[in-house]
Structures are given as C-alpha cells and as structure tokens.
C-alpha cells in the first residue's frame, strides 16, 4: 500500500478560491485600480497663499472643491453657449435672438460681431440719454455726464466698484484721489480709472470733493473701456465731468 500524500495545508487564498471569491492577487489588482481612479480624479491646481504682505503661488494636488467645479462648469457652459452660435468660420452669427448686449466686451467673439452689438447698444443708448437729459453741450459739442456713462454700463451688465478714496496733498483745503474698477456680470474686472478732485474747483465742501473724485474716476474708467461705443452713439468720448472748468463755465 503506497504512502498517502499529505493534503495541502489550507491557506486564506485557497479558502477564498474554494468559496468562489476572488483570489488575494485579484484583490490586490482591484485595490490598485481603485487607487488609480482616485489619483486620476486629483489634478494639479495653482493656489495663492498669503504670507504677511506677500502672495506666493503654489502648485497643489487635491480633488476639486465645489467652488472649482462650479467655476469649471460656468466656463464650459459659457464657451458652449458661444460655440453653438458660430458659423463654419468660427464667427458669431449676427442674429438678434443670439447676440446679447453683454457680449460687446466678450473676447471670444470676433471684432466684427462685437461692432454689430455695439451699434445696437449705441442706438438704444442715444434715446435714453436724450430723454433723461444726460447730455451737456459745450462749444457745439455734446458731452455725456457720468450718469449717462453709468447708464451705458448698466445696459451691458457692468457695475462700478470703488477700490479706494484717499486724501490727496494739495494747497487747497481739501483734496481726494479715487480709484474705481469696472466689473462685468461674471465678476471679472474689465476696466479701471483713477482721478483727483480738490476744493480749488467748483466743489468747496469736503464731502462734495470726495464725491467728485469718485465721479471723475468713474467717468475715466468708462471712457478708457467704452469710449468707442459712446462715439458710435455720436457723442464725445470725454465725460462731461472731465472737461476743464474753464470750458464748462463758458458753455
């Protein structure tokens, strides 16, 4: 009678195989695949951290936050919205039901199509300025007040954000320097302006000088960014409040 071969010693792997479950090797492969998927969901992001008065850009690896996902979705939706309205040459189709006024500053749209929008905006603006008496005539030329320029901004979805108003050294009793930014509907800065005002001019009270500095800075910001649209409407590209007081007094 021959010797009986000893039975194979049971192991965790053999037990799992007998139970019909995956082997330890398969389990390790599965874990690797899961880890790979997790790593693929992580990307490199550029973050800005503040250390004292210094700002340093660092590259970090992490999963997208809700805010980043929202921003990415917004950018994708805007790009898709524009791409859906383009012809075979990549130009935006000039149709009234596709072009919106806020697109006049959209860099993704061709200059030709932005002029189409600007012309339409200028025509609508002209009727508003005339009906609301937001135009001042000096030596035969029409100048739009800052309120009129702000109306243009509102029409295309731009708001004014005051960045700073600081005392300005002057021989006059009061002086202020103001800086403002123009912000579009997405919260992107599209223009800026800086100006001063002193009590040596028409404004004598401190609060009036303070306000005039802001008014002039606002007018300058709009002029630097939107003068071409105002000229399409047939008006001077210089806001009324920026005109020399000697000329204003002669009107």
Would you kindly provide a written description of the structure presented here, covering whatever features stand out?
- The protein is an alpha+beta fold.
- The protein has a domain at 111-250: Enolase-like, domain 1 (2-Layer Sandwich).
- The chain is 43% helix and 22% strand.
- The protein has seven helices and seven strands, in the order H-H-E-E-H-H-E-E-H-E-E-E-H-H.
- A three-stranded antiparallel beta sheet has the order 5-6-7. The chain has a two-stranded antiparallel ribbon with strand order 1-2. Strands 3-4 form a two-stranded antiparallel ribbon.
- A hairpin with a 5-residue loop joins strand 6 and strand 7.
- Helix 5 (146-155) packs across helix 6.
- The radius of gyration is 32 Å and the shape is flat.
- The termini are far apart.
Short overview:
The chain is α+β, with helices and mostly antiparallel strands.
The appropriate CATH architecture of the domain at 111-250 is 2-Layer Sandwich
Question: Shape from CA axes?
Answer: flat
- Radius of gyration over all CA atoms, rounded: 32 Å
Based on helices, strands and strand pairing, what is the structural class? Answer: alpha+beta
- Average of pLDDT: 76
- What helical percentage do the residues reach? 40-55%
Kindly provide the name of the CATH class of the domain at 111-250: Alpha Beta
Number of helices: 7
Please name the CATH topology of the domain at 111-250.
Enolase-like, domain 1
Termini separation comes to 131 Å
